[in-house]
Specification:
The protein is an alpha/beta fold. 42% of the residues lie in helices and 15% in strands. The strands form two sheets. It has a six-stranded mixed sheet with strand order 2-1-4-3-6-5. The protein has a three-stranded mixed sheet with strand order 7-9-8. The radius of gyration is 19 Å and the shape is globular. The relative contact order is 0.12.
Length: 243
């Protein structure tokens, strides 16, 4: 029944707002599929400017996504969407009751008023100091990543993958279409790195830079629900560094 309602968002424009009010999701604070968009709005933190959500293949994958780390740290609820139709349907629901719908896996990270000036300044300084390493990462991963940038959305993980806000399709949706035998555009993700993580700090000056760069990317892909393009090469790189 829920999938039918979601399909209606794209097929029944006249009743889109009414249908949106009937939708229910799990969230980072509620495992059961019981959270309405109105419920979410009522619990939004002061200064929060968007309804945040993440799409994934399973509830476990959504809950454990690295992209949720800073939201969890700040106590910001995120909707967990695991129906195959979710991402398609959300394309037809850019906002609810005047509040934008925002995927945590699309676009540059910006919590607006929920980040204080000290946090923003620290992020800017980290990005500036990390520029030489970023340039090397971009070169090493030019065939895999659209861009490489420093992020403050990560707390415990070294890296994650996102897609550009105007890039349209997520990696998850592209995989789903390919699995169904349908054509899907090639999606080149953005690699975001956590400059405070020990693995990322090891990059600077490392003789194993190239291998570490590819391991970072492939681990971020695994965490996102995908598989390395060349699993054997990934295992070989990891084993070489562990030896």
């Amino acid at each position: 029944f829920g999938a039918v309602l979601k399909e209606g968002l794209g097929e029944d424009h006249a009743n889109r707002e009414r249908l949106a009010k009937l939708l229910r999701f799990a969230s980072t604070t509620h495992d059961s599929t019981s959270v309405s968009l109105a419920d979410y709005k009522a619990r939004m933190k002061e200064g929060q400017e968007a309804i945040y959500y993440i799409t994934a293949d399973t509830l476990a994958a959504a809950k454990n996504s690295p992209q949720l780390e800073v939201f969890r740290k700040k106590g910001i609820e995120v909707l967990l969407m695991t129906d195959r139709v979710d991402e398609w349907a959300l394309n037809y629901l850019p906002e609810f009751d005047g509040t934008p719908m925002q995927s945590v896996a699309k676009g540059a990270f910006d919590l607006g008023k929920l980040q204080d000036e000290a946090e923003k300044k620290a992020a800017e300084e980290a990005a500036e100091a990390f520029k030489p390493v970023l340039a090397k990462l971009k070169e090493a991963l030019k065939d895999k990543a659209e861009d490489v940038r420093v992020t403050s959305r990560l707390v415990d993980s070294p890296a994650c993958l996102v897609v550009k806000e105007d890039g349209g399709m997520s990696l998850q949706l592209a995989r789903m279409l390919k699995a169904a035998g349908q054509k899907a555009p090639e999606v080149k993700p953005v690699l975001e790195v956590n400059p405070e993580h020990s693995l990322v700090k090891k990059l600077d000056g490392s003789v194993h830079f190239h291998d570490l760069a590819h391991i970072l990317f492939d681990q971020a892909l695994l965490a996102e629900g995908g598989l390395p393009e060349d699993p054997a090469a990934y295992v070989k790189r990891v084993n070489a560094l562990l030896a």
